[in-house]
Amino acid sequence: MIEARHFINGEYVTSQDGQTFDLNNPATEELVTKVPSAGPAEVDAAVASGLKAFAAWKRTSAAIKSATLIKFADLLAANAEELGVLEAQSMGVPTAIYPLFLGGCTTSLKHFAALALMNQGITSLNTPGHINMTLKQPFGVCGAILPWNAPLGMFCLKVGPAVAAGNAVIVKTSEKAPLTSALAAKLAVEAGFPPGLINVVHGEGATGALLCAHAQIRKISFTGSVGTGKKVAQAAAATLKSVTLELGGKSPAIVFEDADLEVASQALAFSMFRNSGQICTAQSRLYIHKSIKDKFVALYKAKWIGLVKHGNPLEAATTQGPLADKAQFQSVTSLIERGKLEGTLAFGGNRVGTTGYFVEPTLFTDMEAKAHLSVNEIFGPVAVLHTFETEEEVIALANDSEFGLSSSVFTENLNRAMRVAEALEAGNVCVNTFNTVAMDMPFGGVKQSGIGREIGVGALEPYLDVKASLLPR
Q1: Catalytic-labelled residue, pool 42, 87, 246, 391
Q2: What is the share, in percent, of the chain residues with pLDDT greater than 90?
């Protein structure tokens, strides 16, 4: 039996009102399980248990916080097979490549474990007659609203720094991918986190709205679409919560004429291959120097298609799963049909098979800069390629977007790479590689791609309040 109940105060519980929603397997289109939907009673219970656990956890030593996070990471690794199967059933991630996802989860938790040991304020003698200091203190109960495309990864990237800083957390899962969070919360208790410190509730947007409006939740961290992010910010504004938003992207990749095309085509193909293109940093907006367009397209097609083996996500030979659900499939395929009217279909553009939400790798060219597919996030295996001739031209094209999450530049000229990196309006710029993250560097967006930063050496800061203490002497 698949466990899909809420996890509150160390126990699995159902919803008091009996409300549920269906979770379907995107590869087979069959029902996986019915999932309870949290209402006010479940959110209130999670907050109450979180406050109780927080009272003790905030006084727990940094050494114990750190050790508990490391043990939690080890338990996730030990349960990799079960977690992989749950992710395959709920959103179609192939079990053969799931270790790549899980490795990021455990690495991030161990990074936060190290940061837990270094959480400290500053002192100052700059005010005559005083010894002043800052105290970094946890908020209390935080809310973490997860996306569906990387559920366990986002669980770790939000829960890890929150508890390392001394907070309790209520996780609201996506209705498309709730299963791994339900198991992870149980493993967290086994690792030594007190019951109630990490609670998990399931539900759709209404459940997230309850977290955002709850007066005793002091912090909200959300990852998802721009539209939903704006709703989160509006709801949180009623109680002036601290908010971190990691939102959508239309990430540009710039390939200059001197770039190593083998490296560029492989990197950019992998960027779109990951998770069937359902990643906010997927480089779906390609700017290729006019003189190398044909050669790049040929390499890009061969490398992208070469990565893909569609099939049952539970089978070892499968490398590419389906889109997450019927709604996402319909959205992506309708955009593909629109793209056929707006530009030239270079390759792909079709459904794979008749069962499951599988879509071919797809590339469009010869599309206007302001065409719908050129400017809007697709969140599927669909890229759009434009050409350019000068550095100044391509910087202007890349920046002509309301998104600003990630970007890449490919060139052998280091000076050019640094000029372009500085000029691009994005939270992250990668040089001669696809969009990725590094635990020692912050991650987040500018413009409508978000507010605030996650991970990096300052990963705990968004989960801490800073108090000034002034001591006369």
Answers
A1: 246
A2: 99
Tell me whether strands 217-223 and 242-246 are parallel, antiparallel or unpaired. Answer: parallel
pLDDT digits (tens, 9 = 90+) for 134-192: 999 999 999 999 999 999 999 999 999 999 999 999 999 999 999 999 999 999 999 99
* Known catalytic membership, residue 280: yes
Instruction: Please state, in angstroms and rounded to a whole number, the distance separating the CA atoms of residues 35 and 200.
Output: 12
Token readout for 113 is 């474990």
Query: Phi and psi for 268 in degrees, rounded to 5?
Result: -75, -30
As beta bridge partners, residue 124 has 132
Hunting for tokens 């269906």 — which residue is that? 22
Neighbouring CB atoms inside 10 A of 354's CB total 6
Q: Is 124 helix (H, G, I), strand (E, B) or coil?
A: strand
CA pair distance 212, 277, nearest whole angstrom: 29
- Between CA 317 and CA 377 the distance in angstroms is 30
Contact status, residue 289 vs residue 255, Cβ threshold 8 Å: yes
- Give SS3 for 387: strand
The tokens describing 425, both together, are 């309006």
- Which residues sit opposite 362 in a β-bridge? 382
DSSP letter (8 states) at residue 351? B
| pLDDT, tens only, 331-376 | 999 999 999 999 999 999 999 999 999 999 999 999 999 999 999 9
Name residues whose C-beta falls within 8 Å of residue 451's C-beta, 6 or more positions apart in sequence: 233, 243, 244, 245, 444
Q: Which residues contact 390 (CB under 8 A, 6 or more apart)?
A: none
Q: Which is the catalytic residue, given 105, 280, 360, 377? A: 280
**Number of helical (H) and strand (E) elements in the chain, helices listed first:** 14, 20
CA 427/CA 407 separation, integer angstroms: 8
pLDDT of 227 > 90? The answer is yes
Strands of 11-13's sheet, edge to edge?
11-13, 6-8, 198-201, 168-172, 141-145, 217-223, 242-246, 450-451
**Residue 42 annotated in active site:** no
Both tokens assigned to 4 = 């899909």
In the DSSP assignment, the letter for residue 326 is H
